[in-house]
Amino acid sequence: MFGGHHQLYQWNDKYYVSFIDDFTKFTWICPLCYKSQVQLVFEKFYAFIKNHFKANVKYFQFDGGGEYVSLKFKKFLATNGIIHLVSCPYILQQME
């Protein structure tokens, strides 16, 4: 997730979260008004992938930011068989 920028358009989106397919490097970028929306956006993204591509998300890697470590989010990942990987913060190579 990245953000904290000044509002550029008429929408209130200050943050963005990106989801990257590790194999194809295809990237989805989703705007957020608040960091707390990450779980909701991921749940919608997960449903989109399952419905449109008939595929499963196997791994979810993040930098350990607070928006990713709630019990509710961890439960969603575990319930759907998604393994969560935590990379070291500020190490770009681990996030590629």
From TrEMBL:
What InterPro entries does its record include? Integrase_cat-core (IPR001584), Retrotran_Ty1/copia-like (IPR039537), RNaseH-like_sf (IPR012337), RNaseH_sf (IPR036397)
Integrase catalytic domain residues: 1-96
* Pfam families in the cross-refs: rve
**MF (Gene Ontology):** nucleic acid binding
Q: Which GO terms describe its biological process?
A: DNA integration
The residues the entry assigns to the signal sequence are none
Domain of life of the organism encoding this protein: Eukaryota
The record's section on PANTHER family has:
INTEGRASE CATALYTIC DOMAIN-CONTAINING PROTEIN, TRANSPOSASE, PUTATIVE-RELATED
UniProt protein name: Integrase catalytic domain-containing protein
